[in-house]
Amino acid sequence: MQPNDPRESAPGLRMLVASEIRFLRDSLGEVLGRNQDRVVIGYAQESSEIVRMSEALMPDIVLLDAALRDGITAVRQLRETTAKPRIIVFAVIETAASILSWAEAGITGYISSNAALCELNALMADIEAGRQTCAPRVSAALIEKVAASGAQSRGQGMPVGKLTHRELEIVSLIGSGLSNKEIARRLNIGVATTKSHVHSVLSKLQLQRRGQAASWTRTLGR
Hints:
The chain is built from ten helices and five strands.
C-alpha cells in the first residue's frame, strides 16, 4: 500500500456508493451499514465524481448503479486508477448483452435488477468471496464469448464450438458446483434429461468426469 493510504486504518471494507438517485444511495448506505465488516465512506452522484473520489478515498469496493449515465466509461477509468477498487454494478437488467458489456468493461460482479434490498448483504458477501451466480443463459453466453475470444487470440478452434446452447448452460452450472438434481431444478428439466446433457458435454469435450468439466470452465477465463 501507498504511505498514508486511508485503507491502512479501515475497520472493514471501505465502500463508495454511486447513483444519481439520492434515495437509492441513502437506502443502500443504510442497509450496508448494518454489517460491521463494511463501511460506506462516500457517495457519488455522477460518473465524473467516481474516479476523483476513488483516488482521494481509496475505497475497496465501488457499488455502482447500472442506470448511471456513462457508468461503463467510469468502470473502464476506474480500472486505470491507483485505487483499483473492486467494482460491483447493481440493478442490472440480466440479459447476456448487458452482462457482457459490463464484464468487458471490468466489473468484479453484479447484482440483478430483480434482487431484493434485504438480500443485499448476502449478495455482497457472495461476490466478495468470488461466488457469482447468474441466469444460465447468461452463463452460457459468457462462456461462449470467452472461449471465442481465446480461440481467436491463439488462432485455433475451441471445443466450446461443439456444444449446443443448452449444453453451455449445463457446463456453466457444473462449473458452479451444482448437482444433476440442482441443475434440473434450475433449468426446469428432468434429471434424466440433465444426465443425458452432462454425458454429451463430457463426450464432446473428451473428458471423463464432472470435475474436469468444472475445471475446463475455469480455464476459459485465464
